[in-house]
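## retry 2 of 3
previous attempt timed out at serialization; input unchanged, resubmitting
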Amino acid sequence: MLTRGVCVKFSLGEALGAGEPDVRRAALRHAGRRGARAQAIYILGKLGMSEKRLYEPLENMSRGMQQRVAIARCLLTAPVLLLLDEPTTGLDPRSKQDVQRFILQMRREHDTTVFVTTHDMDEADRLCDRIAVIDNGKIVALDTPAGLKREIGARIDKNGGTTMEDVFLTLTGKSLDDDF
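## retry succeeded, writing output
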């Protein structure tokens, strides 16, 4: 569902083609049905999907394809605020890069604010200007990726090679074994 230029959670409507309901909705907000269809084809292409996918029922698509369609639906109306929860979960490496590249393009070309929740620290590093590390429901750090890596790198004596995973594990005080 799209509310005032903010993409929020919606039902995929698996029996419909990937673009059917969204092209209709976008046509009401933009330059008409033809322009909306062209935009849908453009976005699907940027996400590594062919035009024929626009007409394919979602129930026939893989989980990864459905994820890309969900992201395309959010991007169709060029929202001012894009809320993405684990946007690349279930995607193969190429699809993941396609989605990340297009999200960055949206930020540049449409001045879209993107709010991402993710457990993928490399993805956070690549997509985010600022990162909030949350532990037990509390923000334990908030800074740029470079700032967080610099601060934690100095703390753990690993300057220059600090990763966002190092940052997360240091700030939360947990190791991977703590989850078991």
